[in-house]
Amino acid sequence: MNIKKLKFYHFRNYDKASFSFEENAIHVLQGKNAQGKTNIIESIYFLSLLRSFRTNKLAHLIKREEPSFIIEADVESKGKIEELKVVVSDSKKQLFRFNDPVAKYSSFVGIVNAILFCPDDMTLFSDSPAMRRKFIDMELIKLSRSYTSTLSHYQKLLKQRNQALKQPYVDRSLIDVFTKQMINDQKVIIKQRSRFLKELMEKVRDLYPFFSDGQERMDAEYETFVSNPEEMEEKYAKSLERDIQYKTTSLGIHKDDFTFLLDGIPVIQCASQGQKRSILLSLKLGLAQIAYEKGGQYPILLLDDVFSELDEDRRKKLIEMLPENMQIFITSAERIPEDWFDRPVRFYEIENGTVKEEKIHE
Q1: pTM of the model as a whole
Q2: Distance from C-alpha of 62 to C-alpha of 87, rounded to nearest angstrom
Q3: pLDDT tens, 182-209?
Q4: Measured between alpha carbons, how far apart are the two ends of the chain, in Å?
């Protein structure tokens, strides 16, 4: 998968920007901090998931004193070109495919499969379980439409069950209907999450030794509310009175967690900042490999400020590990030596929302 052309208007600090990107090449966006490097990869990420990785407020993405922003892209996928467009105001998103309106977000999300590494990912291990669930769910959503629909259905049922629990008179038969449907959804979700985490950690165990010289072993544990899915009905029956008392659903996959382990010890307890960065890079490259095996093509890889806190040896190792038939975008405040690459690379100098010059390394 490749972004061939990218345009955006009134996005962040850009009034207008237009790019033509080479397929399967590395594109290095260089420049001082706060010049607009990350904004470029943020626009690609927005096309992928219709959200920013830096803010939850759409208004923050719109250039000051403008009413909206527009992102347009020609995207190559398995030899075919997709023409995509997003028009966003601070209150709504309008989606277009080949200039035709797209009614549902779910029909647009995932057309562009982009995997991101950014400095904020470093909090994955210390953040709340909700952030780790989001990390797993967002990747599964891009890979599986059945997972997307099942998770969406479960979330709708959960909301309805909680609303029913908040009523002055609790209809237990209605609660039972919601619970049975939720159990069916959760059996599917737990199975898919478990399988995905197992596949991901197999990839990570192959990749992480390149960063750690093979001295440590990576693993992960999936923590859900049942050890056996057949126990769900009994668990919900036992928790019903508590749920009625507190007016909320106390059990379910909406409270699951994932613990990442380094030599059997939780990463949050034992890993240095450099180790965490290496683990995250292994996770991201593992996700890319899974996407390739399932879909027959690599996703687009977005690496924001990836070289910070990596020594020169690890920086070179990372570049060596990047798959050749993958389009990659790297932002860096430091200049990256051209002789580190043995593949096509394009260097862009970004200053105050403009591309000052472009160098090509073949």
Answers
A1: 0.90
A2: 11
A3: 999 999 999 999 999 999 999 999 998 8
A4: 20
